[in-house]
Amino acid sequence: MAAKPVSDVIELQKSLRVVPSIRLDTPAVVLVGAPNVGKSSIVRAISSASPEVNNYPFTTRGMTLGHVEVFWSDDATTAAAVIPTAGSGGRHRSSVNEYEGSYAFSQLCQIMDSPGLLVRPDNERNEMESLTLAAMQHLPTAVMYVMDLSGGAGDRCSSIQDQLQLRKEVRSRFPRRPWIDVVSKIDLDV
Fold it and tell me: Which domains does the chain have, with CATH numbers?
């Protein structure tokens, strides 16, 4: 009789282990876009996170959290970023020491990878898409909207037209969020 509640608690514990721990007092940026547009590659390149990267849609099935420390000068004309390493308490000491004397300010930022979104009504979204939208709705994040305009996103649901329509829908849903558009995969020969 007590076995069912215990097994439920164990399952809940397993689920919570894979949920990233977001600090609400630390700036966060969530990367959003259609499947296979390069969100995970960008997160891997600019933060301490190591999301899985493959050349097919729907590789990302959950939120991945990484960190980057950003430094800038008094007049905000010069900036640098340092990717913290694991086990360093969020700071890559040797690189941080290089910058701490040269820059007036620094800020640790959270970078979140998210599952891809498709252009479709909310009642047709899967759990992964709902997770992305829930993170945007409930967490105080800036948005980095990632687009692959090469036409090679690898999925019929990731056409350039669909990506632009998705951008319009997401932007209208979150009009007050700090927002930046990023075009990825411009280095690829198509």
Answer: 22-183 (3.40.50.300)
